[in-house]
Amino acid sequence: MTVGVCYFPEHWSRERWAQDVEQMVEAGIEYVRMGEFSWSRIEPEPGDIDLSWLEDAVSLIGDHGMRTILCTPTATPPKWLIDQHPSILQEEPDGTPRHYGSRRHYCFNSPAYRDETHRIVSMMAERFADNPHVVGWQTDNEYGCHETIRCWCNDCARAFREWLREKYDDINSLNEAWGTSFWSQRLRSFEEVDPPRHTAAEHHPSRLLDYYRFSAESAVEYNAIHTERLRAVNDDWFITHNFMGDFNSCDVYGFTEDLDLITWDSYPTGFAQDRRPDAASPDELRAGDPDQVGMNHDLYRGAKQQPFWVMEQQPGDVNWPPYAPQPGEGAMRLWAHHAVAHGADTVVYFRWRRCREGQEQYHAGLRKQDGSPDRGYHDADKAATELGELDLGPVDADVAVLHDYDNLWATSIQPHAPDWEYWTHMRQYYRALRSRSVQVDVVHPDWDLSGYDAIIAPALHLVSEDLAKTLKSEVESGTELLITVRSGAKDQYNKLPDTSAPGPLADIVGATVDQHESVPEELDRTVTYDGETYSYRTFAEWLDPDEASVVGSHIGGVGDGYAAITENEVGAGHVAYCGIWPEADLADSVVSDLLDRAGISRTERFPTGVRAAERDGYTWVTNFTSDPVSVTPPADARWLVGDNTVGAFGAVVYEGVASNLSLK
Questions:
Q1: Percent of the chain's residues with pLDDT above 70
Q2: Which residues are designated catalytic?
Q3: Same structural domain for residues 563 and 636?
Q4: Do residues 417 and 341 share a domain?
Q5: 202: in domain
Q6: Its Gene Ontology biological processes (predicted)?
């Protein structure tokens, strides 16, 4: 287990580099990431290449026993390049260019930028091909940050038409698939297809879904320019990209074949404020939401089905959320332990020193702008010492939670309620699992699902016949399956099929959806389940059971008495269908019953903010709250870090299982 840091030598005088690097060694740093925003420093004039400064920095780091991860600098094309090729710039739906002066202002489909990317990546790769201190590369930086996966320029229009021609072959097939008779949207040729630019009313949902798919694939195709050139030069390098948390437009699964390693950038106090509809609690403002961060850990681990890295770990206060409170004392250490517990092999803090210039001056580093230690430095030092003694295998999860960007996009295109939000709905079930200390893999529905004792499929909106057959086979062999509201509602083109929801899943669910409704707070939102009364939110379905047993029913309103939750025996397993978005207590009850049927051990229900995670025979107890917590581990547990008192914003580790843990 290792700790790293992001460093920008171009921001500091050479006289300071040696001291910075020596202090990195003292803090237990093993990896240093550099170069992702340095194009104008590398090539100040067209064709005038200066990599000597970066070579010197790499040598200095290597001489001190650390390893370097270099980045392709394409997230920030220099001004001279924009002046030479203005078509590189992205455009908004209304045609407004996203001008130079920030970052991520280029279009993935610009032929000129693809050529320039090939050139700069090739040049850098060849320069460092034989450098023993460079062990890997990060491509670009945070694809999709600032809502930049989708562009609406003329290059994208041409590329979209070619993408559609390859997918549908002829325009009549497209018209049939999309359903363009509605609102007189029938097309005569692919040349008539434009990106979904600014319009008077909402766009056709099938057109939007295909544009979202096209845009995501454009980023994957662009990324391949980097990976192909790097591998051609030195196949021993590992290649990765740093993704972001709860990102809606960038489909990480498309990148997995081209990347050796998945990494992501974790900023818990920012994410709790700007990436979910609920207001952050005081503790979340100091340490974040463990389930919000944890679900992203498990998603990026599941995307490649192997350990991942945190390529940017929040080091202290940050500049970009609405508010920038100081993290709780010890939170930066807590986040490193939490990541490792969920399967991270390396945690890289962003950044080494607070920058004195530009847009990120209010973003903390491990050290202040004068070079003195900041609060995160001591946490990183302590985490490096504690984690450096662990040699861990992968996380072994009993439960898979299915996640798919197509379902995210389709439900967001037609949310049917202002507070429908895919991530939040999915996290309600994830939170119920993690509050019981159950290990979770977040995986794509097309991944291998064998070996899981239970599967949860939240809002499996678009369901193919092949996926339905796969799920049926898994359940028949003994897997317990829970399917949630809005599943099987649409076909692969984002159209209603000629059968009732849950469509291809109806056979194993043993029920169909008679009616559905989105429900504001002013209307009745209660159900019975297992003899108890519970509340739900946002979305509800009235189920018409066939073979399924009714285990939950609506109370009040026009749906009074209708089935809301069903269970159906299928072979050696069962399929539960939850036709409402449950509040936390009901989600816990439904998930607990699923775990019982699957024979999966679990703890008592822990309070929000306190979590236990197991990895390779070791258990972490993490406390994201401002109050100490006392725990009772299994009798045979052996403490590695800390003891049975988990301090505020603290973490402890023992050798032993998580399921026998309890709170005092």
A1: 100
A2: 142, 312
A3: no
A4: no
A5: no
A6: galactose metabolic process
